[in-house]
């Protein structure tokens, strides 16, 4: 259910990608859309400031901004 997502549409978060093919540094991104749970993971469509495209990521790779 989408109601269980930690973050909301429009919220700015830090994207902390895994080690596979992405830079280790986190990136500032905006939540564009909440997606259904898949495989027990809350999914989000995000748009990072430094990228021209959107990506789908699990909640575990996102952190709220301090």
- Shape, per Cα inertia axes: globular
Please describe the biggest sheet, giving its number of strands, its sense, and whether it closes into a barrel: 5 strands, antiparallel
Mean of residue pLDDT? 86
Q: Indicate the multimeric state.
A: single chain
**Stretches where pLDDT falls below 50 for ≥5 residues?**
none
Q: Which structural class should the secondary elements be placed in?
A: mainly beta
- Proportion of β residues? over 45%
Strands of the largest sheet, in order across it?
4-3-2-1-5
Structural notes for this entry:
- It is built from no helices and 5 strands.
- By secondary structure, the chain is mainly β.
- The protein has a 5-stranded antiparallel beta sheet with strand order 4-3-2-1-5, with no helix packed on it.
- Strand 2 and strand 3 form a beta hairpin.
- The N and C termini lie far apart (27 Å).
Q: In short, what is this structure?
A:
With 66 residues, this protein is mainly beta. 0% of the residues lie in helices and 48% in strands. It is built from no helices and 5 strands.
Secondary-structure topology with pairs:
Blueprint: E1 12-15, E2 27-38, E3 41-48, E4 54-58, E5 62-64
Antiparallel strand pairs: 1-2, 1-5, 2-3, 3-4
Annotation keywords:
5-stranded antiparallel beta sheet, globular, 66 residues, mainly beta, single chain
């Amino acid at each position: 259910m989408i109601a269980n997502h930690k973050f909301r549409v429009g919220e700015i978060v830090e994207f902390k990608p895994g080690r596979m093919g992405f830079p280790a540094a986190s990136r500032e991104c905006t939540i564009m859309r909440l997606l259904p749970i898949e495989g027990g993971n809350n999914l989000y469509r995000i748009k990072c400031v430094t990228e021209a495209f959107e990506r789908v990521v699990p909640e575990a790779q996102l952190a709220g901004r301090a």
